[in-house]
Hints:
A: 199 residues, B: 250 residues, two-stranded antiparallel sheet, 68% helix
Amino acid sequence: MFVTPAFAQQAAPANGATQGEVHTETGVAHNEHGTGVFPPFDQSTYASQLLWLVITFGLFYLLMQKLIVPRIGGILEHRHDRIAQDLDEASRLKAEADAAVATYEKELADARSKGGAIAESAREAAKVKANADRAAIEAELAGKLAAAEARISEIKAAAFAEVGAIAEETASAIVDQLIGPKASAEDVRAAVATAKVGA
Amino acid sequence: MANDPTHQFQIFKIVPIEIGGIDFSFTNASLFMVATVACAAGFLYFSTANRGLIPGRSQSVAELSYEFIASMLREGAGSHGMKFFPMVFSLFMFVLTANLLGMFPYFFTVTSQIIVTFALALFVIGTVVVYGFYKHGLHFLNVFVPSGVPGVLLPLVVTIEIISFLSRPISLSVRLFANMLAGHITLKVFAGFVASLGTLGAIGIGGATLPLIMTVALTGLEFLVAFLQAYVFAVLTCMYLNDAVHPGGH
């Protein structure tokens, strides 16, 4: 498929001079752009294509190397780091939450046992106070009882003493009625005392 | 000339430049090289301008292509090969963008020129050879001596290895060039059938539907080829670079 280089190179500078020349390489006449060669094998365009390829691809390569690859690489790395960091943060927070739960449960248990102790001591104190109160009331009641008994025996004694005087008077009145003359007080007293003893 | 299937590969001058008798004109090919670089670099640059922690759509595409090539190179040439990442990524993006731009009607396909693909292939092989000798000295020649080959077979195997090494730039460049060229010509020929059959009246219009369907299907196939050839170019680049990084390691 290659045309002779000599032909192509001669044709290139001529540029247009070969217009109208029919080249049977592709079976079609190319009379528009000069050389009439199957375009990809037209060596007159090689120098220009190579130069512009070097310029454009070289520029593209530089842009990629200096700007685009570091940027995309940076984005991906940053995301990777960020995900790792977030995972670390999440596990740290989870550990913190676990610790908080443990502390909470420990404090709850402490509070529960403390509350039990307080209730126990309150119950003890109440019991002691109740016992003391009962003892005091019992003592007071016993005192009152004793005082009441003393009073009763006093009243009884007084009543007994008065019973003697009334009997003496009654006896002397009965004796007066029966025998007229007044019995002496000593006799009557003696007689009552005898009767009392006898009774 | 519009129906000539090779017309689309025609190069014409936009700004004639001649230095020392050699034609360095700014042509439509040069224009589309500039367009390719502008599209590829512009897309990668502006899609990542936000440096979003959560990527948007275009940033995702840029990141995906980055990671696609990065994992390709890491698998192909190991972690030592990652120093060539900007090169492989540039080659892939350049070829892919050039191929895809070539899919637009009336656009010039940069990679349909053998000189362009051959220059890119020589760039790859040149890098392999220069880096191989720079890094490993004469041990780089181990690349032609596979390990575990019996001594009797060694001359034969080494000869084959040398031939295969020398044919690499050719196969690498011709594969890309021929795929783009053949695909575009086929597309043009079938599309031309639609137009020429369409002028033949009712039966012709009926007959034109067949090449029309073919053209639509080929367009889809060409998009696949455009991506696939860029991928193949990048994969082979990675494999060849592996030789430069680990000579004799295959």
